[in-house]
Amino acid sequence: MDVDSARHLCHTINLEFKEVNTHKNVTLSIGLVCVNPGNEHEIKVILSLLDKLLYQAKERGKNQTISQTI
To answer: Taking the domains of the chain in order of start, what are their residue ranges?
Structure first.
């Protein structure tokens, strides 16, 4: 999946979450890492970056997606 498709999917998930979310104080923050073909990274490096991006999304006001391509 390319980065634009992944971002679109995250946006769609967020919209659907908003529709079914009955607890307005609950938000959906997403960290997204896209790995370019041919780039090899250990899974622990990718998971660490995902965690960092998730917390960036929360710090920037929650209810959003932060992505990075490696």
So the answer is: 3-69
